[in-house]
Amino acid sequence: MRLKSLIYFPIMLIVISMNAQDLEKGFNYLETGKYQDAQMFFKNILKEYPNNKTARLCYGRAVGLNGNPTQAKGIFIDLLVDYPNDFEVELNYGESLLWNKNFTQAKTYYKGLVSKNPESFAALLGYANTLSNLKAYEEALTYVNKALEVSPNNANALTSKKYIFLGYAYQKQQAQNYDMAETLLLKNLSLFNDDSDTLLNLANLYLIWEKYLDAEATFNRLAEKPENKIQALNGLALVSHLNGKEKNALEISTEVFKYLDSKTIPDLARQTTERYIQTLIWNKKYKHARNLIKNLITDYPNQNWVLALSATLNIYKSNFKQSLANYNQILVNDSTSFDGNLGKANVLKALGRIDDAYRAAKTTLKFYNNQKDALNFLNKLDKSLSPRMESNASHTFDNGDNKAYAFSSSAIYPISTKLRILGNYNYRNTNNSLTNNMASANDLSLGISYQLIPNLTVKGIAGITTAKAETTDFTQLLTDVALNIKTIKLQTIDIGYKRQIESFNADLLDRELVQNNYYANYNLSTNFNLGWYTQYMYTAQNDGNNRNLVFTSLYYNIMAKPSLKVGFNYQYITFKDQLPTVYFSPEKFNAYEVFINLMKDEALAKPKQWFYNATAAFGYQFIEDDPKQSAYRLQGAFGYKFSERSLLNAYGMHSNIASATAAGFTFTEVGLRLKWNLLDKSLFRKSVKAN
Question: What is the pTM assigned to this prediction?
């Protein structure tokens, strides 16, 4: 909060006797804020009357209020030498300490003035404003109330009281004591009915508190005054965005953008332009946003608010390197910029530069202590880098009388931002009531994942499986080696090799069927809601057979919150040898399906919220040259997020797609899944230091 907003002394703290000099014109200059004119007036008076105390005091005030606080302080020091213990001079010197932002010194000085004259309105108000600037708001309220006892309903004291309440509420907001901040702001509203500053602060508190209905109501209340309508509508557009109503946000912002004209206050015009471009970006109208930003760059070259808009657009278009360049330029212009520092942290995270992201976020907190967004960013980073486990228990059955019970647990233990230790354990018990075959398998594996460079990660896992089947017991080696590549924006490639044992049912487990899978996955996202995923896998088996599999999925995202997408899947499988009595191994298999998926992502769910995922698919499958068969697939998950560290969900799947099982039967699976972070922060965070 600016000092100028807090210091509301009467222009004249002095009692004068006009004598022969006519100073009225100079007083009027001071009272009407014409400080340059006042300075020249009293300077000329002092040429003729250099020892006139009143003229010297007025000249000092004019100099200070005209933007030269150091010079003014010197004038009052000279006056104190000439007029020691003159209370009038002391009051003006005290105010000069505030002009020079010497708040600690001013506190001691005003405390002495108040002790000397407890009934001095100017001393009490000056002390209150000093305490406010030192963020001692509770004590400041005590002294501003004493000032009001001396001069009831004094406009300057009431204005100071309003800003003390605002500062106190902001202090509580920064400490995330939102209840207290709300109480203080509502108290301020009761004292200053429908005050615009208080309503705006209250609305922003509700935004940070994520009380969007209250924020909307407050912005609507703010909009009742015509002079506040543009600012209120900008706020309502943001509320709509935070509620996931992007089209509504754009409608509001488009309406308010049309209000702008040459008479609009420049800061308000800038804020409205910012919000309008932001709503265009939120609605993926990138071309229009880009054109407006280009015009702004021409009109306002190297302005941070324009660079921030460009950075935001580049993030939404996944142009992370360009966005980083924008934020770096912002920090060249202003190293303390909140948007620059935290925006840079987010981009660095997206680029996979986690250590640098940590440093940028900590730099933000160095300038903005306890800032909620920066703290949340660091907490999310910590969560992603903390040790975690995921466990599943499931029951599977099909129309071939196969049943299975399985349990699996995986663990990830990051030991740096680049290196993770991976562990997996799987148990499966399966039986067939027709053949009376029973079998069980235990898999245990351990490995690491290492980020070689920000867009290249390698994973290596090795382990063993031990199985007990009807006719044999065996132990086999397990391997999973993969390379994850993100060299091109919006595209991901996985290349890998995986050795596994086919354990879908007891008969297959009894055959000790080893599969060597060589695969490549390609995933493409776009800025226009279309996505494409493709997988190719070649499998060589120890029974001499081999398989080629191709799967591709083209989908379109209709809605973001909750996620709603529709798409088309195609699958092709071919085996070298056909062994239909042993396992599903057609010479050719084709499957086509359309699907719809509705999901509330567990990653986006807040603690104590439900999440879900439901998929329905229907299509046709062609086995060899047989007539087409209808195919369907139903999948669902429903869960609850207990905290930022734990969640639980039930899931189920039912399908008659032949390739869904190794045996080619209709099958069903139900299960429970538990996911939890063992700690609430990474074990190595202290090793990452802020700049």
Answer: 0.85
